[in-house]
Design brief:
It is a single chain. By secondary structure, this protein is an alpha+beta fold. The protein folds into 2 domains: about 60 residues, no CATH class; about 120 residues, no CATH class. It is built from 5 helices and 10 strands, in the order αααββββββββαββα. Strand 4 and strand 5 form a beta hairpin. The protein is globular and about 60 Å long. The relative contact order is 0.13. The mean pLDDT is about 90.
C-alpha cells in the first residue's frame, strides 16, 4: 500500500481469493478512481447493509440495545470414553491485551459429568475476589485434545477420523458486544441459540440452489499436492 501510494510500480501477490479482492480494493481502486471511489463505496456499503439487515438481522439478537459484535465457537468431538461432546479449545482467553495493566478475560468451562454437558462462565484473571489466578488449561494442542469429562488425552488420529466421518461439531460458547467501555462477553442466551438454529435451517433451505448454481465450491482438493 505504501509503495503504491508513493507512485512506485508495485506488484503484490496473494493465493487466497478473498485476500486478493481485499488487496485490489484497498490498494488499486483508490488510486485508480481517486476520491470518487469513496462516495461510491459509502453509497453501496449502506445499500448492502440495508439489504443484509432486512433479511438477516433477526438472526443476530441484540443484547439490550446493543448488537452482538462477534460470536465465539468451539469445535467438538465425542469423548472417546463417554461419547459426550467435548470441546477442542487451544486458548480459553476471550480478551488478552498486551498491556499488563488491562484486564484479561477468560471463559471458564463448567462441566456436568452426569448429564454430559458443559457451559462457560465469564471470569476475569487476577488476584482479587472472584477472579481466576490463571486461565483454564487448553483442551487442544498440536492436533491432540483433552476430554473435559475424563481429563484424558484424545489422540490426533481419533480427532481426524471423527472429522472425516462428519462427527466433528461446532458449538457457540460466548458472545461479545462492543460497548463504550470496550468489549464485554457473556455466555450465549436462549435467543442466540434459537437464532443459530434458524440460520442453520435457512442455510439448509438455500444450499441446494447455491450448489446447483456453483456458488459454493465443491471440487476436491488434494492437499498433498499443494506446495
Amino acid at each position: 500500500m505504501e509503495s503504491a501510494r508513493l507512485g512506485f510500480h508495485t506488484i503484490a501477490d496473494e493465493y487466497n481469493p478473498v485476500a486478493c479482492s481485499v488487496l485490489e480494493a484497498t490498494v488499486q481502486y483508490p488510486i485508480q478512481f481517486d476520491l470518487s471511489f469513496v462516495n461510491k463505496t459509502k453509497k453501496w456499503g449502506a445499500e448492502l447493509r440495508k439489504r443484509f439487515n432486512k433479511h438477516l438481522q433477526h438472526l443476530y439478537p441484540k443484547k439490550g440495545i446493543i448488537e452482538p459484535h462477534c460470536y465465539i465457537f468451539a469445535r467438538m468431538v465425542p469423548c472417546p470414553d463417554t461419547q459426550f461432546d467435548t470441546p477442542l479449545v487451544p486458548d480459553w482467553h476471550l480478551l488478552k491485551p498486551k498491556e499488563t495493566t488491562k484486564i484479561k478475560i477468560v471463559a471458564e468451562p463448567l462441566v456436568d459429568k452426569v448429564r454430559g454437558t458443559w457451559s462457560v462462565r465469564i471470569r476475569e484473571l487476577g488476584r482479587g475476589a472472584g477472579k481466576m489466578s490463571e486461565a483454564p488449561k487448553p483442551t487442544y494442542n498440536k492436533g491432540k485434545g483433552i476430554s473435559l469429562f475424563t481429563g484424558r488425552q484424545i489422540p490426533a488420529d481419533y480427532i481426524k477420523a471423527k472429522a472425516q466421518a462428519g462427527e466433528m461439531r461446532n458449538t457457540l460458547y460466548a458472545v461479545a458486544v462492543k460497548t463504550s467501555d470496550g468489549l464485554e462477553f457473556q455466555p450465549p442466551e436462549t435467543d442466540d441459540l434459537l437464532a443459530l438454529q434458524e440460520a442453520e435451517k435457512e442455510l439448509e433451505k438455500r444450499q441446494p440452489a447455491w450448489l446447483k448454481n456453483n456458488i459454493l465450491p465443491t471440487e476436491c482438493v488434494n492437499l498433498k499436492n499443494l506446495c
